[in-house]
Write a structure and sequence with these properties.
By secondary structure, the protein is an alpha+beta fold. 16% of the residues lie in helices and 32% in strands. It has a 5-stranded mixed β-barrel. It is globular, with a radius of gyration of 18 Å.
């Protein structure tokens, strides 16, 4: 009986460690340092996108990247994840993001490799642009001027 408890605790501990393979990292830029961002839920932002046009927001979701894809989607499993319910994320060199307290860019790691952010949960701050809708105008809006990104 005691052996099975130890085994269960060991399996549970390993499962928790496997789920938490990424450390929380914060990336910031020198852009929009004096701006106050409105913290909104992803669903509310998508449903009220016209209200937030040209405004600075903070929103959380899951980032998806690929060929012609740079999107923030709702991280809820019970919602529509189509492009029309997603935001195009426009990372630019005009507002480079660096790891807080280090000069390591978002798309590089401390060992010089490419930083993998695909399918990662994140909180992002930027300016909503309803006129630009990403690749082939397929997304709900674009989040521009990204000045803060927190990876989980």
């Amino acid at each position: 009986m005691a052996q099975s408890r130890v085994y269960i605790i060991l399996v549970f501990t390993l499962a928790l460690l496997a789920c938490n393979t990424h450390k929380k990292k914060i990336y910031t830029s020198e852009c929009a340092t004096e701006i106050r961002f409105k913290k909104v839920s992803f669903s509310h932002l998508i449903d009220s996108i016209k209200f937030y046009d040209k405004q600075y927001v903070e929103v959380s979701g899951k980032y998806v990247e690929g060929k012609h894809i740079s999107a923030l989607i709702n991280d809820s499993t019970f919602t529509n994840h189509g492009n029309n319910r997603s935001l195009w994320v426009n990372f630019t060199q005009d507002c480079p993001l660096y790891l807080k307290d280090k000069h390591i860019g978002l798309f590089e790691t401390e060992d010089g490799e490419y930083n993998k952010i695909n399918n990662r949960q994140m909180t992002i701050r930027g300016r909503i642009d309803l006129q630009k809708k990403g690749h082939k105008e397929a997304y709900r809006a674009t989040i521009n001027e990204v000045s803060y990104l927190e990876l989980y």
